[in-house]
Design goal:
Blueprint lengths: L14 E2 H9 L1 H8 L8 H10 L6 E5 L2 E11 L4 E10 L5 E7 L8 H17 L5 E6 L4 E6 L2 H20 L17 H4 L1 H10 L13
Parallel strand pairs: 1-4, 5-6
Antiparallel strand pairs: 2-3, 3-4, 4-5, 6-7
Length: 215
C-alpha cells in the first residue's frame, strides 16, 4: 500500500474529496473546476443535483435497525482531504458503510470508486476502524454497486490524492484529452478539447499545450 511522504499539517490546503473524482475522470476538468473556477450545467449535472437533493440535507434516522447519517462531514488530517459523504449507514455492530449517490452510469477509470474509497479512508481515521466495503447507488437503475476497499483501490486513491494536490500546487491547466470522456462533460465549451487537439495536429504534432498531469 502506498504511503504519503508526510502528514498534512493544518497550514496546508486540504483537497476536497469531490476534486479527486474530477481528477480521476479528467485532470483538465479538475483544473477547470477547482483552479479556474469554471462551471457549466448540462443535462447530466442537473440530474446529479436532483439526485443529491435527496441526501444533501444533514440528518439521521433509524431504518430497520440501521442508523443512517446523511450529508456527514468527513476529513483526514493525515491525508489532507475533506468533504461530505452523501450517506453513511452504521451497521448493527457499528461499522460504517459509506454510500455515494450518482445520477448516471459508472464512470471511466474508477473515478467514483476512488471518491468512495477516500470517504472510507476518512471514516477509518475519524472513527478508528477498518472498512472493507461501501456502495455506489446509481439513481438511473435504482441499484447499488458494491465497492471493495482492497489494496489496489486504496493505492490508486492515495496516488490520486497526491496527483490532485500536485495539480493544485502547480496551478497549470493540463492539455485536453479529446476522447470519449468529452462528449458528456458540461465543460466541453470552456475546455475546447477538439479545437485544441486539432490545432496540435495542424502544427504537425508539436503540442504547445504540454500535459502537466498524469492522464
Amino acid at each position: 500500500m502506498l504511503s504519503l511522504a508526510k502528514t498534512v499539517s493544518d497550514s496546508d490546503n486540504y483537497v476536497m474529496i469531490s476534486a479527486l473524482q474530477h481528477y480521476a475522470y479528467c485532470p483538465r476538468q479538475c483544473a477547470l473546476i477547482h483552479i479556474e473556477k469554471v462551471w457549466d450545467e448540462n443535462l447530466y449535472t442537473l440530474r446529479g443535483q436532483r439526485v443529491h437533493a435527496i441526501v444533501d440535507t444533514p440528518g439521521d434516522e433509524l431504518i430497520e435497525g440501521v442508523r443512517v447519517e446523511r450529508a456527514m462531514p468527513l476529513w483526514s488530517h493525515q491525508l489532507g482531504i475533506t468533504g461530505i459523504a452523501d450517506v453513511v449507514e452504521f451497521l448493527a455492530d457499528g461499522t460504517p458503510y459509506p454510500v455515494e449517490y450518482k445520477s448516471g452510469s459508472r464512470k471511466a477509470k474508477d473515478a467514483d470508486s476512488i471518491q468512495l474509497c477516500a470517504q472510507a479512508l476518512c471514516l477509518e481515521e475519524m472513527l478508528g476502524c477498518t472498512l472493507s466495503v461501501g456502495a455506489i447507488f446509481h439513481h438511473g437503475s435504482r441499484r447499488r454497486r458494491e465497492v471493495r476497499f482492497d489494496a489496489e483501490l486504496r493505492s490508486l486513491t492515495l496516488q490520486t490524492i497526491e496527483g490532485t494536490r500536485s495539480l493544485f500546487v502547480a496551478a497549470k491547466l493540463p492539455a485536453p484529452v479529446a476522447d470519449s470522456r468529452c462528449k458528456d462533460c458540461s465543460l466541453i465549451d470552456a475546455c475546447m478539447p477538439h479545437a485544441i487537439d486539432g490545432f496540435r495536429r495542424a502544427a504537425g504534432g508539436n503540442n504547445p499545450f504540454k500535459v502537466e498531469a498524469d492522464l
